[in-house]
Amino acid sequence: LRREWINSCIEQLKSLLSPEFLKQQPDSKLEKADILEMTVCFLTQLQQQSQQKRNLLNNFNELQTSCDENLREADFSPLSSTVHTGISKDKNPTNSALWRPW
Question: Per the record, where are the segments of Polar residues compositional bias (predicted)?
Answer without folding.
Answer: 93-102
